Amino acid sequence: MAAATDDAGDSNEMIRVVSSDGEHFEMPEAAANLSLVLRHMIEDDCADAAGIPLAVVAAKPLAKIVDYCTKHAAKSSGLTIEEAEELKRFDAEFIEVDTDMLYDLLVAADFMGVEGLSKLAVQRTADLIKGKTPEQNRETFGIVNDFTPEEEEEICKENEWAFQITKPPSRLC
Fold this sequence. Notes:
Layout: E1 14-18, E2 24-28, H1 29-32, H2 36-43, E3 52-53, H3 59-74, H4 81-94, H5 99-112, H6 115-129, H7 134-141, H8 149-158
């Protein structure tokens, strides 16, 4: 891939990435460099016309990651207060996804080494969990409670210290 540079000396090269299900996406090299994995692949001359294969990242989360990285790369330096607020709004809207997509984004961002997106997805997950009972969290994340009442009681005894500062959830302890 031929690389042109803009006035700031940044490469205008487009990097092709390929999802686990064979979909191709193109993104500016500056956006690809927000991913540690892609940056290393580019540095090692693994970015060719066929694209960089991402064997564990499906098309839907990869499309969102390409959007995230492209937006953040375009706004990467010298942000005005207004631009910083715009990026904050973008992130807030971007991460408003269902729990399945949130999980896929967490896994993909972690695999690809997109630190900003990983932090954003972890914070969103924490926000979904915060202030809820274990039963509410099971419902939110589709988790089946496979503990017997006796096992729940034992867990409460083993982790009694955790409830000394906060009020214990009504259903667990």
